[in-house]
Amino acid sequence: MKQIKSRILAIENLVITFTLRGQVLTAIRGISLDLYKGESLAIVGESGSGKSVLMKSIMGLLDKNGSIAQGQIIYNGMDLALFNTEQQWLTIRGKEIAIVTQDPMTSLNPLKTIGKQIEECVVLHQGLKGKAAYTETLKLLTDVGIDDVEKRYKQYPHEFSGGMRQRIVIAIALACKPKILICDEPTTALDVTIQAQILQLLKSLQQKYSLTIVYITHDLGVVAKVADRIAVMYAGDILEVGHTHEVFFNGKHPYTWALLSSLPQLGLKGQPLYSIKGTPPNLFKEIKGDAFAPRNPFALKIDYEVRPPFFQVSDTHFARTWLLDPRAPKVEPPATLQAFFEEGRQYANER
Ligand SMILES: Nc1ncnc2c1ncn2[C@@H]1O[C@H](COP(=O)(O)OP(=O)(O)OP(=O)(O)O)[C@@H](O)[C@H]1O
């Protein structure tokens, strides 16, 4: 496992609200999260849990009706939460923190060759010109695994497959030499084989380009092989955070158990896939206690009343559930998960 180094970004008690037809929706409810230099962190959660809003807030891309109501986003000694001009954000966006989204077509200009699109970023962000910019563009294309680069340079986005287009978007992001790369569902639109190739590519580029990567996904299975740490999000809060093996094989929050149980890899043969019952809470209303309590078969009375603090499981593993309070009754994870956890522990011991 990689040694955890210094913090590159620190989110402190962040609250983000949106105003919609005179009503206020709280999308992020007091999140604190550190991002360490050189790591890959996956933020996992159901649709609507606030993953995208959280990432948009660190790039100054919140929708106009949204604002940071409270908290700090510390990067390079600055508090990004205080930024209020586009000029300020332009010093960060792309240059320091870049994003790769699910649909490469929305990030690419259909009317320009892909070579020109990458080269524009090389010129703008690396200050290279002419032959040097062209050579750098070809190098980026090679680095993202595209062959026959001189020919490919002159082609348009529609001449590439979905997976190849995603590689081009990654090349554009890298052309800006960012320190942090946010990958928002980068492989959701791709089939499984291509998905694995793109994740592998990101992993290799991470080393080569000294990147810190944040993966955003609703699918725990996708990030198991590439993330160093996992943060589990639910209804605008982080309920559990830890090293990937800690969350996978020693998860403590019942929501994490539910996410793990719904992984197809864990499905028992001949049985329907587990799905989490109920719906997430209404974010227009104040949430008392643990937001997951109404859907949590293991919820205690206090879960409905008081927001649980982060209980420490190890130096690197924390979970917001009253089940970890020393006074709580002992609750075991679901039986299917216990076997999975045991397998994981054995595997970790053998390594
Ligand atoms: N501009 C907006 N106005 C009002 N509500 C918004 C706005 N943008 C996001 N939200 C709300 O904020 C909450 C979090 O949304 P977000 O897009 O971050 O979820 P997500 O976890 O990224 O989901 P998905 O995986 O579907 O993208 C949702 O309830 C969403 O409806």
UniProtKB/TrEMBL annotation:
It is found in: Cell membrane. Keywords: ATP-binding, Cell membrane, Membrane, Nucleotide-binding, Transport. Pfam families: ABC_tran, oligo_HPY. One of its GO terms (molecular function) is ATP binding. This is ABC transporter ATP-binding protein. Residues 9-260 form the ABC transporter domain. SUPFAM superfamilies: P-loop containing nucleoside triphosphate hydrolases. InterPro entries: AAA+_ATPase, ABC_Ni/Peptide_Import, ABC_transporter-like_ATP-bd, ABC_transporter-like_CS, Oligopep_ABC_C, P-loop_NTPase. It is a peripheral membrane protein. GO terms for cellular component: plasma membrane. It comes from Lysinibacillus mangiferihumi. CDD domains: ABC_NikE_OppD_transporters. NCBIfam families: oligo_HPY (TIGR01727). Belongs to the ABC transporter superfamily. GO terms for biological process: peptide transport. Signal peptide: none annotated.
